Amino acid sequence: MNRALNPASNFIRQIIEEDVRANKNDGRVVTRFPPEPNGYLHIGHAKSICLNFGTAEHFGGHCNLRFDDTNPEKESLEYVESIKRDVRWLGYEFDKHLLHASDYFQQLYEYAVQLIERDKAYVCSLSAEQMRAQRGTLTAPGTNSPFRNRSIAENLDLFTRMRQGEFDDGEHVLRAKIDMASPNINMRDPALYRVRHLSHQLTGDSWCIYPMYDFTQCLSDAIEGVTHSLCTLEFEDHRPLYDWVLDNVDAPCHPQQIEFSRLSLDYTIMSKRLLTELVSENYVAGWDDPRMPTISGLRRRGYTPASVRDFCDRIGVTKKDNIIEMGVLENSVRADLELRTPRVMGVLRPLRIVIDNYPDDRVEEFEAANHPQDASMGTRTVPFCRELYIERDDFLEDPPKKFFRMAPGREVRLRYAYFITCTDVIKDNAGNIVTLHCRYDPDSRGGKSPDGRKVKATIHWVSARHAFAAEVRLYDRLFTVPDPLGDKERDFKSFLNGESLKLVASAQLEPSLANAEPASHFQFERLGYFYVDPVDSMPGMPRFNRTVTLRDTWAKQAPRNAASNKG
Ligand code: ATP
Ligand code: MG
């Protein structure tokens, strides 16, 4: 069974199952994913997307993509478009369910008026600092605002004039009248509306007051008939306010807010604000830099929608905060690519070899399987001649005990081709190895042993006369420590990994790759999965991003990862 399409159950599903059974909301299930368009989505958002869209799908309901666009200062259409693209890429449709909090500005305004009329909200004219000072602390109650007892008529008048643009930014705010002594600071007369003379990407200059998050979310949910409003744990303390607002206006329904833990991944960060810093200060090449944990970065690196969905399913949904190892995500990527990615040969650090007993004018074509298990993926031919490239790492002049690959006098198999033995090592004046001389066994054609004798290693190669050179990018973790935000003394950027991108300017690749289509996947045998960069590849000149290595080499280096990365 495809787990990604039929995700495992979780505590939220169980709550909803119960509700459906009890015919709550007439058995309907409506969820929403409410991104603020102030940056590109990251893998944490993918968890929320899979949960919201996946849950609605499971119950035959629907999920709204609702832009939480109430803060024009930081929002833009570029972000809106990128978010739509990313949600679609993950495999979720929202054509009929594309909405914006700004669609409800008029209704939200009317709900605010309702609160004022019921003496549940007032216009406060304290400055932001004064308000903060009077808010109290976790242990001390807050102080009532001197404006708390304004009459309803005066509040209505002031709020109307706020809306009409008579006041400057920060001159007045509309606050809920709840309880300045509440143990929950969110309930101490929170701001509902503030004055901001800013143009909005959709509503233009129609509004100069904008509603706050806590006022907007619950009412937008109610207006849309959302039944279950799923959000991350930091909103648990906001739930009383979510409920208070809905209880104190004539809301069309009362959605249930349920919180779950956010996704954290090691060796990266998951905050749009901090990711924005990396982009704007040019620490990375853009939002879609393949090292970024953004969905657009993962996509450009070669991650597939199925692998990201599979990952979200594997990590599950709970209320417990924890940090997931990057290896778990990478295992989902390997598992998906393993099955459907054609194999090819390429050499990243070429070492020239000459097969002395192979005729100089001969070229053979060997048939190579595109996939070791899936014959339906067919075969291709790879040319073979007297001069080849092999991987520099596959040869050691003075090998340690456990090194079984090429060494002087030792026989190895060239994949699909012949057994060869190294007979001579040529060095330049500086002592660097420049060429290996070898002899081949003509009876081992196709890489088959002629007499049952065994070789311990099979290595990959390309024909030096037929190979073409291409740029290959190798990626590593973006940060050098598992929790770059954990050290309060040091800026997270001081933990950026200077080796996170290694450029191989001219890898030597088998000729079949010269016309590789942008956005296609290959496994370079023994080296990993690679993706033809969709942005800066050119016709006849593909550039390759390594999506992931074949095994979790990281686990070997960092023992604390070893236990759970084997799977
Ligand atoms: P960030 O801190 O990265 O800016 P955010 O919560 O401010 O994230 P929103 O655009 O408000 O970003 O998020 C939209 C939805 O995605 C919210 O419902 C939020 O709870 C959810 N979400 C954000 N980050 C994560 C995460 N790391 N794991 C799971 N869900 C997340
Ligand atoms: Mg947010």
Structural commentary:
It is a single chain. The protein is an alpha/beta fold. The protein contains 14 helices and 27 strands. The strands form 7 sheets. A 7-stranded mixed sheet has the order 12-25-26-27-23-24-13. It has a 7-stranded mixed sheet with strand order 21-18-19-20-14-17-22, with no helix packed on it. Strands 4-5-6-7 form a 4-stranded antiparallel sheet. The longest helix has 16 residues, at 43-58. It is elongated. Adenosine-5'-triphosphate (ATP) binds next to α2, β8 and α9.
Distance between the termini: 18 Å
Number of domains: 3
> What is the global morphology?
elongated
Calculate the mean pLDDT score and round it.
95
**Which structural category fits the helices and strands?**
alpha/beta
Bound molecules: adenosine-5'-triphosphate, magnesium ion
Could you give me the name of the CATH homologous superfamily of the largest domain?
Answer: HUPs
Strand content: 15-25%
CATH topology of the largest domain: Rossmann fold
The counted number of beta strands is: 27
Task: Report the total helices.
Answer: 14
Helix content: 25-40%
Order of strands, widest sheet = 12-25-26-27-23-24-13
Low-confidence stretches: 1-5, 555-567
